Amino acid sequence: MPPKEATARIKINKLLEAAGWRFFAEGGRPANICLEPGVTIKASDLAALGDDFEKAIRGFIDFLLLNVLGFPLIVLEVKAEDKNPLIGKEQARKYAKSLNCRFVILSNGNLHYFWDLERGNPYVITSFPTPDSVIGYQKVTPNPQRLIDEPVADDYIVLTQRPTYRSEAAWRNESERPDYVKANKLRFLRPYQLKAVHVLQRAVSEGMDRFLFEMATGTGKTLTAAAVIKLFLRTGNAHRVLFLVDRLELEDQAKKAFSTLLSADFQTVIYKESRDDWRRAEIVVTTVQSLLFNNKYQRIFSPTDFDLVISDEAHRSIGGNARAVFDFFIGYKLGLTATPRDYLKRFDSANPTTRDPREAERRLLLDTYRTFGCENSQPTYRYSLLDGVKEGFLINPMVVDARTEITTELLSEEGFVLAVTDDTGDDQQESYKQREFEKRFFSAATNELFCKTFLENALRDPVSREIGKSIIFAVSQNHAAKLTQILNQMADRMFPGKYQSDFAVQVTSQIPAAQQFTINFTNNCLLGSGNFLPAYKSSKARVCVTVGMMTTGYDCPDILNLGLLRPIFSPTDFIQIKGRGTRKHDFLDQLFDEAVKDGVLQPEKTAFKLFDFFANCEYFETEFNYDEVLKLPRPQGLGPNRGAGPGPVAGGTYEHLGGDIIASLRVEQITAEGMRIDRMFFERFEDSVREDPKIVAAVEAGHWDQVIDYVNREVFDQPEEYYTLDKLRKAAAVDRRLTLREILEKVFGLIPRFKSRDELLEEEFAKFVADRKPEEATAIPAIKTFFKAYATSGRVRDIIDSRQFTDLATNPMFSTRDFKAVPPKYRALVPNYIKDYVSLNQFAA
Pick from 563, 565, 566, 522: which is nearest to 541 by CA? Predict the structure, then answer.
């Protein structure tokens, strides 16, 4: 046996044992792995195997995996490490058919494919399936044609039995339908939701198994997902569905929705509440964090446990380590997102820079499209905000462009970039640090000017005539506290005796019960309700001031004003924030006084205002027709460089006062585990964050923006231990630059260990192979060498991009000989792929 094939077999042996397969009888259970059994191939099948295979009636299977009765279950075909496992595809298919096997695994020890011969193409897996999982999976006999032919009408999702109507015309008359909906608790698919399901059915008929629905905030992605789930389960094309979310509150929200919409036919559970009996349910809802914890998705689950995996807020729930969870399971995949790629306007993707925050966003969105099989960056189905507005389901913002002379200067051609800590805990290298920005440009006078402008121009509640419910987005938690105080002071002057400092509320991770505040604001009971009219249920608190808590997934349809008192660089954040106001609403639903109802002239929400103090709309839109332009005066005595005192100046010098000698000299090679003092430092940090209830709660909820902010503010740079990110990176003793989020994920067991640079490179290359499926199997080692060199060496990238190939002759990492070994088409394909899909920061030392 060639050495590379032997190495592959050793790795496969370990993978099989880890998945519960047995080479020998154990505990009264027989062995279920058969090594190199002979198989008889039909003479009619020999020609199809080609010249590369033995022209013999008998062949030998590398591994044959058996079911509980000892009958063939899976054919496992092994190839050498330097070969693409797919080259054994046809040979394995013939063996499987001869043995009446439905399943095939193709592997070279590093890259593995699971192939259900009744479902289509081989699918990349990262672990081998368990025997029980495959046997359960085998009970589902897929029939894509049933799914394609299933009639799906607008009444596909029904909560109760369909009532008797006066006539069929009454059933179809949408003007009469709302009363029936309320009386009989029925749900109906809107035309665009129905179209999304039909488009998916058509995609299945074209052989697709991955789909992406790009639907604007407020268009009912969960209801659409419920219809898709019912379609798959009802037609027998799925026996169990996994619905992945990235935040705890979205988990509860989805569970309630599916229980309400589908409880008549299917059971929905949240995984953490049903750890022992989740297999009894058809729909399992969970957060990505739950599955990542201690590699639970690999230890407890099998790749064949779910036939349909749906990723809510797909652009977030498949990012970073979460992608491994999503890719682990085989079967159909559906992504739901509200973030369109065309919001990356004015971004030159040919010349990306690490200073442009849109570069990471572009890569994330491209990766989302790639993950769901939309290589042309066109989703399976798109329903935009403009579509929703045009058809009367959503509301476009009334943009109020309000700039002071200071912000106008900041938004000049040179522009400015604000340094914020991203959700991995890394600082971006922008012109102004957050504290400096806040200190220099958000003086008390500027903040007061912003708040005064907001209150004087905000939309009023159509029933009570108080300031409409609003959300203001601040630069930082400290800035949010300042704005809240100013708004409450101004409200006391505008509405004497009405609020007693309850007008504005800070809703950030510093505030206890902040998450409950967001729920109470939606339910119109934050700090009380009915402040102006006792019979009108509307929150006493009128403004929530936040940083990032009330963006993704927050539903509050009666919002009338949004204030952007900070610059925004993420298209995703911009779209999510804007989406808080796009839902329609009837304010009379909150009023219980019939006499007052008659006097309300316009109870329907027809508009909401988006106050933009930093030209965020202009940043994302090449041209925008602003509904209102307010030029704010420069606060007296202030300018972009005023109001900030000099920074601390290092003082004191060291004076050498005498000689000294070396008493001893000892040389010690530090191992990969690092020095003991470093490990102790890291362990103390682990104890500190694990014992902090606020951090624990935020991690469990998946609120990484709050976790990162809190650690930076309350844990780092404290006099007791003086933890810093740089010190933790050194203590971790990893050959690459860790992010704070990775460190915290390790602390809380979401990842078992830090992966080395080469492990990450191997993972990225495996994705490349899975996506591009190189036909030149013998050239894979050369392509891998090129891939790793281009991803990790700035010098190699410069040589390749500038086409100065002669410089490779003296390059120690990647030589001219290495380059010539790469097939010509991959010399351009690899760099383009890496630019689009691979974050190079993760490989930095």
Answer: 522
